[in-house]
Write a structure and sequence with these properties.
The complex is a heterodimer. Chain A is α+β, with helices and mostly antiparallel strands. Chain A has 8 helices and 9 strands. Chain A folds into 2 domains: 117 residues, 2-Layer Sandwich (60s Ribosomal Protein L30, Chain: A); 122 residues, no CATH class. In chain A, 39% of the residues lie in helices and 24% in strands. In chain A, the strands form 2 sheets. Chain A has a 5-stranded mixed beta sheet. In chain A, helix 4 links the parallel strand 1 and strand 2. Chain B is an alpha/beta fold. Chain B has a single domain, classed as Fe-S hydro-lyase, tartrate dehydratase beta-type, catalytic domain (fumarase). Chain B has 7 helices and 9 strands, in the order E-H-E-H-E-E-E-H-E-H-E-H-E-E-H-H. Chain B is globular. The chains are: A alpha+beta, B alpha/beta. At the A-B interface, helix 3, helix 6 and helix 8 of A face strand 4, helix 5, helix 6 and helix 7 of B.
């Protein structure tokens, strides 16, 4: 399948704006489910305002949150799709820049030392563009995630040791949720990476944090850990915005990778309640937008 | 748990009447301020031409559109999407913001810490919680961007907004040493061991 790079550029632009405006249906359902169980009056009021905001954003065609985030594009290339990689990266970068300058969006991206903002949401290594491959023929999927900084600032890695076992993972997740308090904009999706190398572990935590609600870790042990920890963090009482209540997290998601005999790494990355994503799927039939 | 409709600027007496769990709606002027704004004001010797005395500031860096200056958009900026950011990063600026500029109200999300609570108590101030991530709603409470200073720091400029019924906001830290965040933090930490026990954690 041929991929038209002008179309990729337009899609990269459209995805950024779409992601900022429309919350995926799984997150909307997540809100309904938390609101049905929230026993704290302040927590109920905060969730109510969040739900109202989702409606106002759609009714006024506005962004859900002021934070345009760090733009992340996850590209999944199917069989029989052979785009020029350099062209693809450049097209995505141009689309990201154009969303920022033409909409206009707040450029939230700066040089890490000079703090200079070039007002394009891009810079060295940003947008983050990840590549993966799938079995699906003639399909190219681009997922866009504007990753909010309030939750991204609540990220941790611990190189635990084998003697600490899975207890280290469980205690670490509980302690990270306590440490984050209201600063990660709860209710959150708590992304947990287990195993791998240090960098892979942190990446897995991000994959876990940005996965759709209702999806599960492919590994049975990982899935069991998700269920156990999802119940546990909501017993802490942090609540929406850290103001108290039962709704501290929509869920805890776990992603894992094999690791070294001497290692037991665990990482936590959080996704805020404005858990924004948008996808576009290219097939020979055209481009289809989704979540 | 009273509701207060407040028009800024306000006096020390007015701010000390606010108690945690009260709610507040603001009218009049609201200033927007952020990390870089305060780094430049308090670490790099810059100052603002705005009089912040008795006023409210919100931790924000808005999405704006550059437009022709007009009666509706006197600063040459139209609001696109204006919300709030995590306040804790700006903890060390609360005291100088109050003592040097006379700010009485700080609005943000996630709360501030002990030093800010002490400054609120000593100098007469409050922290009002706005719900993070609900900027589409908050934008409807903003009438105009009236003025802007330190605009080379855009979007972290010092913004002057005109607001109407901006709220309800929750008084989460007051001038009497009370912090809702402190209470929740203490209570959630006290549940840690019980939660770990239920998870069967033995070695922590």
């Amino acid at each position: 399948m041929e991929v038209d790079m002008h179309e990729v550029e337009e899609v990269a632009k459209a995805l950024y704006i779409r992601a900022l405006k429309i919350l995926p249906p799984d997150i909307k359902r997540g809100f309904e489910s938390l609101a049905a169980k929230e026993g704290n009056a302040t927590g109920q009021a905060v969730l109510g305002t969040m739900i109202q905001n989702i409606q106002v954003a759609e009714a006024t065609d506005n962004l859900l949150c002021q934070d345009t985030g760090v733009p992340i594009y996850n590209v999944t290339i199917g069989r029989g799709v052979c785009p020029d990689g350099v062209d693809l990266v450049q097209a995505i970068r141009r689309g990201c820049e154009r969303a920022t300058t033409e909409y206009p969006l707040r450029s939230s991206v700066v040089h890490p030392i000079t703090r200079e903002n070039n007002y394009t949401s891009t810079g060295a290594g940003v947008p983050v563009i990840n590549f993966d491959f799938s079995d699906e023929s003639d399909t190219l999927k681009i997922e866009m995630i504007p990753k909010g900084s309030g939750s991204e600032n609540k990220s941790w890695l611990k190189m635990a040791i084998p003697a600490e076992g899975v207890d280290a993972v469980k205690a670490f997740v509980v302690d990270c949720v306590l440490e984050a308090g209201g600063q990660s904009c709860p209710p959150t999706i708590v992304g947990v990476g287990v195993g791998g190398t240090a960098d892979l572990c942190v990446h897995l935590a991000k994959v876990a944090a940005t996965r759709a609600l209702g999806t599960h870790c492919a590994d049975a042990e990982g899935r069991a850990l998700e269920e156990e920890l999802s119940g546990a963090v909501n017993q802490l009482g942090v609540g929406p915005q850290g103001l108290g209540g039962d709704s501290t997290a929509f869920a805890v998601h776990v992603e894992l990778a094999a690791t070294h005999i001497t290692m037991n790494p665990v990482a936590v990355n959080m996704q805020c309640h404005s858990a924004r994503r948008a996808t576009a799927t290219f097939t020979p039939a055209g481009v289809e937008y989704g979540f | 748990m009273a509701h207060h409709d407040i028009t800024t600027p306000i006096s020390e007496e007015q701010v000390r009447a606010l108690r945690i769990n009260d709610t507040v709606s603001l009218n009049g002027t609201l200033f927007g301020i952020r990390d870089a704004t305060q780094i430049h004001m308090f670490d790099r010797g810059r100052s603002t031409r705005f009089d912040l005395s008795g006023h409210a500031v919100i931790h924000t860096a808005p999405n704006v559109r550059k437009v022709e200056k007009s009666e509706a958009n006197p600063a040459g900026y139209a609001p696109v999407c204006i919300g709030t950011t995590t306040s804790a990063r700006m903890e060390r600026f609360t005291q100088p913001l109050m003592s040097q500029y006379g700010v009485r109200i700080i609005i943000g999300k996630g709360g501030l810490m002990e030093d800010s609570l002490a400054a609120f108590q000593e100098l007469g101030g409050v922290y009002l919680a706005i719900i993070g991530g609900t900027a589409a709603l908050e934008t409807t409470w903003i009438e105009a961007i009236e003025d802007v200073d330190l605009d080379d720091l855009n979007p972290e400029s010092l913004w002057k907004f005109r607001v109407h019924n901006f709220g309800p906001l929750l008084v989460a830290m007051d001038s009497h040493g009370q912090s809702l965040y402190g209470t929740v933090r203490q209570s959630s930490r006290s549940r840690r061991q019980e939660v770990l026990d239920r998870l069967g954690v033995k070695t922590s």
